[in-house]
Amino acid sequence: MSESIITEKLINNILEWATELKHTAREFARLSSHEQAHVWNDLTGDEGRRRTFGTDGKEYFTKGLFEPDDLVEKALKDLDDEIEKLPSDQKGALEKAMQMSKDYVSSNFRLKFLRAEKFDAHLAAEQKLELFGEEKLVREIIQSDLDEDDMASLSSGYLQVLNGLDFGERKVIFYYKALSNIVEHDCYKHRENIFRSFWYVMNVISASEDVQKLGVVNVVYNLGGMPRSGIDYEKSRRLAKLFKAIPVRFCSFYPCIDTKFWTIVVETFSVIINRFLLMRFRIIEGDHEEVMLKLKAVGIPSEVLPVTDESKLLVDDHLKWLARLKMVEEAEALEPPSKRSRAERELKIETFDPESISNLCKNSLSCYTVG
Questions:
Q1: Which residues, in sequence order, are CB contacts of 23 under 8 Å at separation 6+?
Q2: Residues 224-251: what's their mean pLDDT?
């Protein structure tokens, strides 16, 4: 049997039903054919792979991603109409944000949630208010807004954005040991530390139009031992709530496991998450080498996963990424207020030389290597 046929069978085995979660299969069977096709498109990344670029550099999306101006305007108006219909007690923090700054709750802000489809702008405002307070409700969250414990959690590298894209040209979010405290090092001191860190990272990547239109894929690397004090299921429950609040579409979710303990953890988490994400949930089992091969088969750039062959976590690239973001944020703070998006401001990253970034990383509060 040829290598290409073997690879194709492996991909289909993982994407179709490489899972023991029977309730997932039942829920999938209840979807319409259109909804099932949507799930499959998210898993395979077909929309991103069908994109083309003209000689002028302009992007030409497939029909499903094309957004004529009149369609965008109508969608925003429909969203505003739906918001207006809500009882005042349900508008909560979103209404407060709109009263505080109409510029912040602009069409770009609302368009993020339209593109993310199943995600809740009201819940997002409530969660942001709870995590960061009213004074930060209508502005971007930057690293200086995070306290020392938040920064320690952010710098731990348990949550990272990989350097490479998957084969659907989507960003890959990496989670180490289900964001749990392990023997070598704690991921967080208080639950709110990981929640605020998660919010910060998701807010950074959500500024990208590619992320808004194509979504992201998620890899949860749970190999090489168990958490020191078991799983904090209350943290997992609240994270699942945050998943619904951020304007980022999770196209696939790959928990990678090697023991029965992690199987139980993943099955429990699958009950907590929303139906949208559950349909895109695929378990990958095996040792480190097997998991890497399977991730590569489904289009994940496994060679840039920040783990060693012994399942130890690597954080150098992550710390450099945070250092670059910090330099952009500090440079922006010295300028007059700008209406430019975070994505536009991040173009300044290229103006900083690697040596200055490296020095900033070395002087960072929580630079260390796990393992």
A1: 270, 271
A2: 83
